[in-house]
Predict the structure.
Amino acid sequence: MKYVVVSGGVVSGLGKGVTASSIGLILKSCGFRVTAIKIDPYLNIDAGTMSPIEHGEVYVLDDGGEVDLDLGNYERFMDIKLTRENNITTGKVYKHVLEKERKGDYLGKTVQVVPHITDAIQDWIERAARIPVDGQSGPADVCVIELGGTIGDIESMPFIEALGQFSYRVGSENFCLIHVSLVPVLNVKTKPTQHSVRDLRGLGLSPNILACRSTKPLEDNVKAKLSQFCHVPMENVVTLYDCPNIWHIPLLLKEQKAHEAILRVLNLKGVAKEPALEDWSLMAKMSDKLHVPVRIAVVGKYTELLDSYLSIDKALLHASVARRKKLVIDWISASDLEQGAKKENPDAYKAVWKLLKGADGILVPGGFGNRGVEGKILAARYARENRVPYLGICLGMQLAVIEYARTVLGLPDANSTELDPNTKNPCVVFMPEGSKTHMGGTMRLGSRRTYFQAKDSKSAKLYGNRGFVDERHRHRYEVNPAMVPRFESSGLTFPGKDETGQRMEIVELPNHPFYVGAQFHPEYKSRPGKPSPLFLGLIGAASGELDSLMQQSCQESVVSRPQSNGKLERVYWKGAAKKPVSVVYSLCDRVYS
């Protein structure tokens, strides 16, 4: 196993996650199987109980792991399925060591940070790196490890010490350290990076490659200075300058031969292929050239930090690029849509309603708590009554049901027991298997199966008329099954249900151009070139192309088979006869056809 570690210096938020994802992608394009690990030095067991405003979105994996959003970047770029073991936190490591201490595994010894915590970290890395994440058996060839935080942070110290020891455990030919650092645009100063590398070396780690974040490409004299003072070969100093979109970052790495530097350190040059990024390059450049806009209003609670909805953002982008549309997102704070805002902040109230009414489509994402709920309900009502394409996700689905109950069924006090425990018309109720005393890891989490009840629904057609679909979940509340017959008799349908038939997974309004809600989170499985069907449906409806999109989706069932030349063979089952037709094509032939 080869290991590539990505660390960061000077300031946080430099893009270590995108850099690590890009390195994984380019190594995969060289013919290697890749996996990834994110190290988060915080004491939380996982990201599940963190505020999105403070830490960004909580990303959910197939196995139910609630993890850092960077694992979403890894999955999207490398097209892999990670596990909760691939996210290491200080809380997990200390919990593991303390449980061993209580069992007596360290009997007679003083349990210390070194060696017990550092050994546990190294063991965890090796164990997680061996987990297959690409659908094949056996471990990957290369594991990309991102060390969260910034060099010098006190909470990172045990991990830095562990990685220093780990480099000796696995050997220098199996360990490559890439340090991402800032080179400020002001006179292109190199001192911050020099000091960051000095601090890193003082902690026992010496970078093999420098990835310098800047607003523009670095001149050769600047690279030479960094090479001299940081003890890194000049050809191993690469610039990650500002780009139109992050899909260009792997291309920057390839252009500057960063992959060759990595392969030299890991002694892999003799077995690596030339990176095949033609399709990725075409996708990145095509995204820059799109000019026909599609405007989507995202009505959320956490819009002050857009990383709170990172997967939503990316899923909309994947779908809009696939439909050859330039995505324009209007981020609307749900609270500003409410009547209270009309009095307290009339300018904001007027501005957000103007945005909502100018949108081609409306999306209400998941969330928790009361703040902004009435604004989201108003958005759902506006979309339903004005026939604007609408996609509600998790809470967004539940609120669409509540709005329907209040307005169409004539139940003005209809609500969720999460928001009003004493409501007389509980449209959304607490799931019986949930916990009301413990918050972390107690929701209905991870990949669950949804069975389609009818093939004539829009969602079933978008999913290719399959009998079922597996999507990721994160919720404690569900549509009240006791009220479903009343909803259905009034025209609201539930074409997707769980295996029991009692848990509502998808809601639709058949006589609406596109009014769909999903209890699951389809954004978590959207990929560049493989957009989520429901997001495709929203973009298709918002751009007036839904009918042709559904016809295409329901006529084609597709299986992908990787080819040795880096392309894909897709077998289509076309038409009513479902005759197989094999086609070998490049990714973008499918995306942009």
